Recover the amino acids of this structure.
């Protein structure tokens, strides 16, 4: 009989939200013949509630999977999964506070992927940061196995908790390079010229201001930045400040992967400003496309790109890199990114790592 695995902590599948959802989408495709999989989904995010997907059983909980409700969403999923599962894979630490109690009363195997260091994000209040740090501690200490998506996170777990972890990142080879269609060029005529590109959530730790400030001083270089500008006062204020520059195009979120692949895949430069978390899925996707990559200079990004990208710490750094880096060097960086991604960040590699981990426990 195959092991029964419950997957907790995501909005759900089919994936339509973020990195963890994409992770579950692709690894379940690869390992669904080896295990009996149940994936917990937020009923509030799916009008069409499938019973099965990727040969997984889908179970819906009528709570939001993000924000404050995510704590109760994860806890409800964990307790429900205790009825049948052999292994509970928990993605993120929102419900981690309950895991010491679960381990005291039940003999289920718990595997947790802590994602990045969520408690360090600037957007959280002091109280939320302290809660998330406590949840992280409870989750890591209670887990039978801990997954880190970046060597820097792995080192942090060892140094802080004295615990070994498994290094498993993300795949990026689901992204594809597509030619710009007539429809897209008609809608976004500025894509006819060379442009730099970034896509992200509009949050301070993604260093949006550094990037926008740099391009506001390089009038002959175009920047296209896609994000959820209207989600916060921060996003609204930043958009208002930089939307008037004729070389800066600030687009609302684009969820259609075909359109996103067209715009991203044809950029001259990919600018990655993330400074929180570990291995970022959007960076891995850009690397898989072979995009010349300029990253914010932080240990997570240097580790992900093996030190082969170009790095900036300030607007001035970014301006200098853009002005001084020639086409041939950019092309070589893109090739290096693609080679690294092919070696480390494919879904077949990632899925096999999860498969081996599940078989071990």
């Amino acid at each position: 009989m195959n092991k029964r695995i419950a997957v907790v902590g995501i909005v759900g599948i089919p994936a339509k939200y973020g990195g963890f959802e994409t992770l579950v989408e692709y690894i379940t495709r690869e390992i669904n013949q080896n295990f009996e999989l149940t994936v917990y989904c937020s009923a509030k995010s799916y009008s069409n509630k499938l019973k099965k997907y990727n040969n997984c059983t889908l179970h819906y909980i009528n709570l939001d999977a993000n924000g404050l409700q995510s704590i109760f969403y994860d806890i409800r999923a964990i307790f429900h999964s205790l009825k049948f599962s052999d292994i509970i894979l928990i993605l993120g630490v929102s419900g981690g506070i309950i895991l010491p109690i679960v381990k005291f009363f039940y003999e289920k195997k718990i595997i947790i992927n802590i994602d990045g260091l969520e408690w360090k994000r600037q957007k959280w209040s002091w109280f939320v940061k302290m809660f998330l740090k406590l949840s992280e501690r409870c989750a890591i200490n209670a887990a039978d196995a801990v997954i880190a998506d970046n060597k820097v996170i792995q080192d942090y777990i060892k140094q802080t908790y004295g615990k070994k972890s498994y290094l498993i990142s993300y795949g990026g080879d689901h992204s594809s390079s597509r030619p710009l269609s007539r429809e897209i060029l008609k809608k976004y005529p500025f894509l006819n010229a060379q442009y730099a590109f970034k896509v992200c959530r509009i949050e301070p730790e993604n260093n949006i201001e550094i990037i926008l400030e740099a391009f506001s001083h390089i009038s002959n270089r175009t920047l296209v930045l896609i994000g959820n500008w209207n989600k916060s006062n921060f996003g609204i204020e930043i958009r208002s400040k930089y939307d008037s520059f004729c070389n800066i195009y600030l687009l609302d979120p684009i969820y259609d992967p075909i359109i996103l692949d067209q715009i991203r895949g044809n950029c001259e430069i990919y600018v990655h400003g993330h400074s929180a978390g570990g291995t970022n899925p959007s960076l891995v996707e850009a690397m898989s496309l072979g995009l010349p990559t300029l990253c914010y200079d932080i240990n997570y990004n240097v580790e992900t790109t093996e030190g082969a990208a170009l790095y900036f710490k300030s607007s001035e750094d970014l301006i200098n890199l853009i002005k001084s880096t020639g086409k041939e060097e950019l092309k070589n960086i893109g090739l290096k990114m693609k080679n690294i991604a092919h070696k480390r960040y494919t879904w077949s590699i990632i899925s096999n790592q999860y498969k081996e981990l599940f078989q071990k426990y």
In short: Residues 201 and 287 are 19 Å apart (CA to CA). The mean pLDDT is 93.
